[in-house]
Every structure is written in structure tokens, then in C-alpha cells.
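To whoever picks this up:

The nightly regression suite flagged Restriction endonuclease as changed. Nothing in the input moved, so I suspect the structure step. Input below, exactly as stored in the fixture:
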Amino acid sequence: MEFEERVAAVAAKVRQQQGMIETEEATKNAFVMPFISTVLGYDVFDPHEVVPEFTADVGVKKGEKVDYAVVQDGEVRIIIECKKAGAELSVENASQLYRYFAVTNARIAALTNGVVYRFYTDLEAPNRMDSTPFLVLDLREIDEALLPELRKLTKDAFDLDSVINAAEKLKYIGEIKRMFNAQFNDPEEDWVRFFTTRVYNGQFTRRVREQFTPFVREASAQFLNDQVNSRLKSALNTSFTVTEVEEPSVEEGEEEPPTSDDGITTTLEELEGYRIVKAIACGEVPPDRIAYRDSKSYFAVLLDDNNRKTIARLHFNGRRRKYLGTFDEDKRETRHLLGSLEDIYTHAELIRKTVRGHMA
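Regenerated output under the current build:
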């Protein structure tokens, strides 16, 4: 299994089970240990590689423990502090990490609730853990740009120097991206002013600020949606070539071979529509869990090839108009008229919500 697939497998497990995990111990067993073993590649049952409840006396404090120490070549390389799933992650809640970072050889510290992993190092002062992480991995929304750096922390590809060299860039890019996210969701006055003064010729008064704040927020959301849809369309811009095959002629007196045609024809449009729905659904589950079944009435896209877990239906059979069928919590179908196959993208959130509902 490739590294990216291992990350996706653990992420799918987290999405499916997060609502069932209520304690820190359950979080360790269900999420953190699989992450250490499956993603990072260390044997969690070998104390030469992973030491649970790692103890290193610090000053007058004796017997304090950090949840895991990852060891390589006899040296502690990574220390990990765990909180229960859903708990807020802040360095104020990770005093052990600060202390152990200073007295061990570890240059990497991780704070996690099993869903989000915050990785720290000592860019600001030697042997003193930074207050800001250089890498934040959210398994609910994986940033694929971070995976090459995460891979450098794995057992087979551990490259501390490369990680440290890239950490400063990752740290500040990550901070800027989080600032973008915050401004998109709740724009500050300076952010609103920046855009307003470039499209509005009047004075930036309080009334103008209040008028343009929702405009900036909505424009940001639409811009992000446009970018996502554009990438999905590019990825799925697959052309199909149909080759006409000349049927052998039937000589006079010969019978034409019998056919087992059940009247169901899967069209290229249905397959293209399926690929679009599948690409959207893959944001929630691995692609191999998405399947389809065609019938005379509609083309169904299913989770786990289970007709009780219908994700969407394509109503393309013998119709001038084409419809996408989506489902609510009560499994009631709503049909949406499609001007083109690309219109499926406008219903992406409904499709993702249905997938999440089937996994609940």
C-alpha cells in the first residue's frame, strides 16, 4: 500500500468512528496507534520503536509521562502527547511536551486528538519547543501538499535534517493559509477595506464597511467553490472514443445468433456522470468503496455496492431532460434538472452529506 493510501485508510477510519470515541484511552487505541503504525510505519508493540507512557524526570518533577516516544537507532526522535478525540489542541494543554522536548534528543513533538496532528520543532530557540506548529495535519480534510513532508517522519524515510530545513517554510505558509481561512469565514475590517477600496470609489465609511463585509465573505466562498469545481472538472475531463465495429453479415439461410439483451444499456454519459459523483464522494471515503448499478429506470451510484446506501441516481434513460437524484436523511429523493453534466458539481455538498449519512 502506498503512503498516500495508508493516510487515506486511517483518515477514513477516523471519519467513520469519531462520533463513537469518548475518552483519551479510546482515542489512543482507535486512532493514534493506527496512525503511528500504519502511517508512520513504527511497530507500536516493539518497545525498541515505540515507548508508551514514556518517562523522563525533569528537574524537581518526577514520574511525569508523555504518551508515546518514537525511537530510532536507540534515540528518541518524536514525542507524542494525546488528548481525547474532539478536544481542543493548544500548547497550554501540553506542558509535558515542552518539558520533555528540552531534556530528550527529540527534535519533533506532536500534539494530537487523533483527528488533528500538530507537529512542532525548535526553530525559534534551540532545544525549546516552538509555540506554533510547523505542520498541521487534519485527517478530516487532508492537505496533500503536506504529505511529502509527513513522509519524512516515517520509519523507512526518516530524514530529520530535511524536515527541519523545510519546517520554517511550512510553518509560515501554514500560518498564512490559516489566516486566509479565518478572513474568508469572518473578514476583519482591514481585509474588507482592502477589497472595497479597489472596487468602490466612495469613502470607506462604517455604512460601506457593513454593506461590503457580506459581499467579501460571499465572494470568497464563491471563489473557493469555483476553484474546487475547476479542478474536479479538469481531473475528470476524460474523452471517450467509440470505435465502430462492422457486424458480420448473416448469410441467407443462416439464423442470427440469439442475444441475451436485457434492455439495459449503460451510456457514456452515465459513466461520465458516475465519475463526477465518484470524484465528489471520494472526499469522504476511499474510491474503491464507490460502485454503480444500472437499471432500466435509472443509474444508481452506491456506497459499498449496497443498494440500501444509494449516494445518487442519474435519470438519463430515454429522456430529453436529464436529472440528478439526491437523497435526504429520510431517504426521500429530490430530482435536480441538469443543463449539462458539469451541473452535478453544484450539488457536491448534498452528495457528500449523503455519503456521511451512510457512514453514521
